[in-house]
Fold these 3 entries.
Entry 1:
Amino acid sequence: MDRGEKLRALFALHVAGARMGRSHDFRALVDLAGPRLFAHARRLSDDADTARDLVQEAWAAITRSLPALRDDRAFLPWALAIVTRAAAREVSRRVRARETAAELTRAAEEPGVDPPDLRAAIAELPAGQRAVLALFYLEGLSVEEVATALAIPPGTVKTRLTHARARLRALMTGDDHGRI
């Protein structure tokens, strides 16, 4: 049995115990997975405090969702995906805050530009395109980083960016011919 297989078996043992309400098994899960979850959150976030918050949010979700985990041996990738989703939500919250601040700044500096029109055009995009657009352009993440944050393949990020750009261009220039 290799190291990875031993680790999966150990996780499975503690997941089963945690499901039965054994607090020492849950603590063992935290001890085993916690550093890995934090390292992943740290890679996805900009600082250690944010990473700690993401991991805390993830543990709350893990606790609630543990009974639904179908394969106890898959605990670690499942938990890492929960951290990824928590990071994506955090990025979305930050993007919304930065978008608002940027629009207000532009409106104050460039009276000829009407940010509400841009905001309305972005709001017309499907949620997946809005998220990719915001992470790539507003957060300055690479395609690979956006893929990681949203837990989607890099090719999907590229496709959504292409469609979002074309759609925004059409909406902003009035060339959308009534299509939404």
Entry 2:
Amino acid sequence: MGYFSKVQVIQRGDRNRQFYLICPAPLAQALELQKGEPIEWVIEDKHRLTIKRTPSGQKTKERR
């Protein structure tokens, strides 16, 4: 079974936009995600985005 959600965008000022991808609660529960848990987004190709768990305690790089 799949879970669907929509991309949300918040516009702040003329240039600053933030995109949000919401993880439905049943999916988060099935994955046992915790609040504040670091994850890594990996672009596989134009149609595939992978989310990887980051080992706890490991600092994540922020790319801009």
Entry 3:
Amino acid sequence: MGSKLRVMTEADLEQVLLWRNHPEVRRYMYTSHEISMDEHRNWFIGASLDQALHLLIYEQEDKPLGFVNFTRTRCREIADWGFYLAPEAPKGSGRKLGNSALNYAFFELALHKVCGQVLGFNERSIEFHKALGFKEEGRLREQHFDGSQFHDVVCLGLLKYEKQSPAEIK
């Protein structure tokens, strides 16, 4: 069975909300308040109608362990991505999620480039992106205000030709 991505459905809402509201996930998000089910459901309804958005659930052995989204930019071949794991996901799941998501981006969605933005204090995510092959493309100084202080935003990008084949990404 292994790991895979599948399209998120309404049946996933409660599980994804639990992951998203977990303090260790929330603290690294642009929107860090605790999200209500009504707010989450409204987001999902709107996002599901947006053809530029791809909402995905990451599974290992048919067990949901993470969320991935791709948002196409003005150029259809370029997308921003975001993701998070279930807090109880086994060690190594992040790398598997990243690799599965990049396979999906480059070989299912036929993207040319995947972009990520990481809050500057989230060194773990910055290193994670670099381990997947992303290059740091810039730093937006004090770009995000979390309600008490400003934070840099690190911009990262990965081009399809920097990954040669699905086998290499696994």
